[in-house]
Amino acid sequence: MTTTVPSATAASPTADHDALIDRLPPDFRFGAATSAFQIEGATAEDGRTPSIWDTFCRVPGAVDNGDDGDIACDHYHRMPEDVALLAGLGLDTYRFSVSWSRVQPHGRGPVNPAGIGFYDRLVDELLARGVTPWLTLYHWDLPQDLQDAGGWPARDTAYRFADYAELVHDRLGDRVEHWTTLNEPFCSAVLGHVEGVHAPGGRSLADGVHALHHLHLGHGLAVQRLRSAARRPLDLAVTHLLGTSRPATDTPADREAARRADALGFRFYLDPILRGSYPRDLVDDLAVHGIEIPVRDGDLETIAAPIDTLGVNYYRSMRTSGVDESGVTHDAHGIPVTRNLPHGGLPVTGLGWEVMPHDLTELLLRVSRDYPGTPMVITENGAAYDDHPDAHGFVDDTARTAYLAAHLAAVSQARLHGADVRGYFAWSLLDNFEWAYGYAKRFGLVRVDYTTQTRTPKRSALWLRDTALRVRGASASA
Ligand code: IFM
Predict the structure, then answer these.
(1) Going by CA atoms, what residue is nearest to atom 10 of ligand 1?
(2) How far is the C-alpha of 112 from the C-alpha of 58, rounded, in Å?
(3) pLDDT at res. 11
(4) Is the pLDDT of residue 474 over 80?
(5) Measured from the CA of 427, which atom of ligand 1 is nearest?
């Protein structure tokens, strides 16, 4: 496939970006995303119980600078002001997540009226300002009590999640049409259970595989419950973090490593949900580690309960090598090496992530080809950069603006080649708690001064506002 998306090395959006962006249709959604733990604060108020991230933040060295979510952006107390800000930016959709332990303390039992009341008011506030709520049920903050009972590696957690989904739907389903079950199960399963860098900090491939199967199962059970409880047509989705995996070189070892990376990092997520099966080669690869996916009769049918939208989060892509630093292709236990590497020679964001908009086009076209018939929305895309506010707190973030423009252009390019992508949500509305990086890494369209909690839209926010207006206006007058 040839793509002509201009690179993001430009310091600001180019005319080529604009030309592609202007081909987006009038009803294309423009939104911004956040998640509960990253912005809300108020972690011990109104009956909320701790989540695994509250616990993880207390582990010495787990989070940079010892940061935690206790105050974050204080959104719990400033929600109306934040909704006004979002609406003022001309965004039509707001993707937020619900804190499970706020609405169902301890992860089981009855709803907490004060907790659900917050989301009830949030939804009303959004609707009153003409913004569509896009609700994510789970963005990594498992109630600690459920972790103590085994967490995602335990099958029961999937059933607890389905109960929780129905409970939130009972209270908000009359007004919320767009429901995403899970955000980036990869991060919950792999970063949280295999690599130990996210809560709950586990380091076991077997736990990660078990956790992922139960996340998939929880998703499928929740879809079934929501579908049968629905009082109106719902748009049900799951959001995955996706990228492309290319072999580092054309050697058989690297090509085989890229296949393994693709099975473990891409098809492990989409195949069960969109095809009702786990990839055969993945099952074989896991067997080499002595690991079996804990599938029971009927699980795959449940997991493949039809969804309406696939949420795609995209930040970067890697290449994969089958050889380690010392030139070896297998470790001491006979396990083949699978090593992700940067491409090199590309611009990088403030997190060192390579800027690769072309790969977003490629991945969207791949999803449309390999899993036809599922509309997509970019539920997250954005970049952390070192922001330098002026005396008024304004950030002239040309690099972030160029990043967003290049990726939005890449989405438009994919659409022109046939991908059914219906919206683009920037990550994130606000600077916020960037997990293990704490508050040092800023992804926001809007700067947050954490001392005063002042919000100041950056240039990227103004660019997104103007772009959304232009696309709607241009389309309306076409
Ligand atoms: O901040 C996260 C978000 O919570 C999930 N997707 C990636 C973002 C940037 O790392």
Answers:
(1) 434
(2) 25
(3) 62
(4) no
(5) 8
The pLDDT value given to residue 245: 87
For residue 143, give the nearest of 199, 64, 77, 205 by alpha carbon.
199
Mutate which of 73, 349, 427 for ligand 1? The one with the most ligand atoms within 8 Å of its CB, which is 427
Residues 6+ apart with CB under 8 A from 386: 350
CB-defined site of ligand 1, < 6 Å: 35, 38, 184, 313, 380, 427, 434, 443
pLDDT confidence of 15, banded at 50, 70, 90? Answer: confident
pTM for the full predicted model: 0.96
Is the Cβ–Cβ distance between 323 and 337 less than 8 Å?
Answer: yes
- Domains of the chain (ranges plus CATH)? 15-261+307-477 (3.20.20.80)
Count of CB atoms situated within 10 Å of the CB of 177: 16
CA of 360 to the centre of ligand 1 (A): 16
Helix, coil or strand: residue 423: strand
Greatest alpha-carbon pair distance for the chain in Å reads 65
CB of 464 within 8 A of CB of 404? yes
Task: With CA atoms as reference, report the closest residue to 428 among 332, 317, 315, 352.
Answer: 315
Mean pLDDT of 465-478: 78
**Pair 244, 265: CB distance under 8 Å:** no
Distance CA 184, CA 193 (A): 14
Sort strands 376-380 and 339-341 into parallel, antiparallel or unpaired.
unpaired
Rounded-to-integer distance, Cα 460 and Cα 204, Å: 40
The 10s digit of each residue's pLDDT in 368-401 is 999 999 999 999 999 999 999 999 999 999 999 9
Contact 383, 443 (CB under 8 A): yes
